């Protein structure tokens, strides 16, 4: 069956959104493992044990499936880089929590795909506009919030930008070289500077007392 015939086969039938969410996570897992070059109806359908018409019914077209995959991948990256417990204790704790989570070996395949998509998006910004709109903003906003409401907004954005750039650079190094001990040592040095800065700010804050 030709692709346009497949895409028309289940037109008009209601979409089961719970089933679509299940299929989407499965397609994202497949894409993490195989990459975008294999993201077409038949290979994906075979891997998932469903028919191509089922995928068409739930996603509409290959382009729409790609958009959905990118959106779910971004959600996963946002979950990985959101500072949950650490955010309550300031930027340094938030950054450490994020680094610990994103550098874990179980996240390696997802971040390989993430950086591959990032590079592809930079070459085709109109096609990946939504991805690019959120790829920095989501994480930056979370790190700005972790700095507390008393931080000057411009300072918060600048600091958050530096943290994002540093952690993403360390992740790229780790993925490219696999030299975990060396990269972890560099990460610890960076995180220590954030912790020292936070301590210094606390010591000089109004109402604080310096120890002799």
Task: Explain what the structure shows.
There is one protein chain. The protein has 212 residues and is an all-alpha fold. 73% of the residues lie in helices and 0% in strands. It contains eleven helices and no strands. Helix 5 packs across helix 7 and helix 6 packs antiparallel against helix 11. The longest helix is centred in the last third of the chain and has 25 residues. The N and C termini lie far apart (81 Å). The C terminus is likely disordered.
Number of helices: 11
Total DSSP E strands: 0
Rg, Cα atoms, Å: 21 Å
Order of helices and strands: HHHHHHHHHHH
Q: Which stretches of 5+ consecutive residues score pLDDT under 50? A: 208-212
Strand content: under 5%
Mean pLDDT: 83
Coarse structural class: mainly alpha
Please tell me what the overall shape is: elongated
End-to-end separation:
81 Å
Q: Which percent bin holds the helix content?
A: over 70%
Largest sheet: none
Please render the helix and strand layout as text:
Elements: H1 3-8, H2 17-34, H3 41-48, H4 52-59, H5 62-81, H6 91-102, H7 108-123, H8 129-135, H9 137-146, H10 153-177, H11 180-204
Keywords:
mainly alpha; single chain; 212 residues; disordered C terminus
Structure summarized in a few sentences:
73% of the residues lie in helices and 0% in strands.
């Amino acid at each position: 069956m030709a692709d346009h015939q497949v895409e028309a086969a289940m037109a008009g039938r209601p979409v089961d959104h719970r089933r679509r969410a299940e299929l989407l996570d499965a397609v994202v897992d497949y894409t993490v493992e195989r990459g975008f070059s294999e993201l077409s109806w038949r290979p994906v359908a075979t891997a998932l044990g469903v028919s191509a018409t089922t995928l068409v019914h739930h996603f509409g077209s290959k382009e729409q499936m790609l958009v959905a995959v990118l959106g779910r991948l971004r959600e996963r990256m946002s979950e990985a880089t959101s500072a949950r417990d650490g955010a309550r204790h300031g930027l340094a704790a938030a950054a450490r929590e994020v680094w610990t989570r994103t550098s874990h070996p179980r996240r390696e395949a997802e971040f390989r795909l993430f950086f591959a998509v990032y590079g592809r998006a930079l070459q085709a910004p109109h096609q990946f506009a939504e991805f690019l709109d959120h790829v920095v903003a989501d994480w930056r906003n979370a790190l700005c919030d972790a700095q507390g409401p008393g931080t000057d907004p411009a300072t918060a954005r600048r600091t958050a930008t530096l943290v994002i750039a540093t952690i993403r650079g360390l992740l790229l190094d780790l993925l490219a070289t696999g030299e975990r001990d060396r990269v972890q040592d560099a990460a610890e040095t960076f995180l220590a500077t954030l912790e020292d800065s936070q301590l210094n700010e606390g010591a000089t804050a109004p109402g604080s007392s310096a120890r002799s």
